[in-house]
Write a structure and sequence with these properties.
The structure is a homodimer. Chain A is α+β, with helices and mostly antiparallel strands. Helices cover 49% and strands 17% of the residues of chain A. A four-stranded antiparallel β-sheet of chain A has the order 1-2-4-3, with helices on one face. In chain A, helix 1 packs antiparallel against helix 2 and helix 2 packs across helix 5. At the A-B interface, helix 1 and helix 2 of A face helix 1 and helix 2 of B.
Chain lengths: 157, 157
């Protein structure tokens, strides 16, 4: 749909602008700002999405919701594979991650890709946080446009 | 629809972040960066939107398209009123401008509103530019959430 593209464009431009501005700042600062935008967006967005829903059974139930409803509302497809070690680590695999599908696979661009993942890491972390789960979310590109998000749950001591 | 909200949130967060970062920079710089993001987004977006369409008859025809199809794809409503002096000035009135509908009308927030217009000014300017029309776009809040966008066409001398 043509108006999904609008979201893609706004995301792309925000990444670009922050990356340009961070010529002075470090690359980490750029990534951390994008993650922060993602966090707030995810936090608010899942609030709306779960408004009418019953309480989740457990952590795995939340993860399944994120992989299905949350992901497909945003990216128009579900996560392709969810794995867990049952000790607080979850790995989400998206075989066609939307924000990088239009990018070339050449080495030059692959180097640029990590900054296109930061917003989405934040999205996941914000969504989980709204549902009471503290986590650290990282991402890596397996083989473009395939992408792996790793969620490490932070238990309170 | 719930996924329109996603676009709203991403916009809001981008404004917030740029505004925060511009504690060091000036307020104008923040507005100009948002306008720039909007310009690129509008430029690319209308390219997709007009892909299958016939050539426009004239400038007024373009403006009508912006007020109807372009505006409703993005903001889910049309521009409420379009006026022109037939000398290159167009005034677009949106009685319920989406980006500020959720904001309070109190003085404190009204002062903050102009930075929520910059992205949209850029959107319009970018869209027109893609269709071969150079312009300057400004905006003002009439009475929240009512908003007036003024387009001044720049003729080549």
């Amino acid at each position: 749909m043509v108006d999904d593209i609008l979201f893609d464009f706004l995301h792309m431009e925000s990444v670009d602008l922050l990356a340009k501005n961070s010529d002075n700042d470090s690359n980490e600062l750029c990534v951390s700002r994008l993650e922060h935008i993602g966090y707030n967006t995810g936090y608010r967005f899942i609030e709306r999405l779960t408004k009418e829903l019953q309480r989740f059974k457990d952590e795995l139930d939340v993860m399944k919701f994120v992989c299905k409803e949350f992901w497909s509302t945003i990216f128009k497809k579900q996560i392709d594979n969810l794995r867990t070690n049952h000790m607080g680590t979850y790995v989400l695999l998206d075989n066609r991650f939307r924000f990088i599908t239009h990018m070339s696979n050449s080495k030059q661009y692959v180097d640029q890709m990590p900054k296109y993942l930061a917003f989405t890491c934040g999205l996941i972390r914000g969504a989980l946080s709204n549902l009471g789960i503290n986590s650290i979310v990282t991402a890596e590109i397996v083989m473009p446009p395939s992408c792996r998000f790793q969620i490490q749950i932070q238990r309170s001591q």
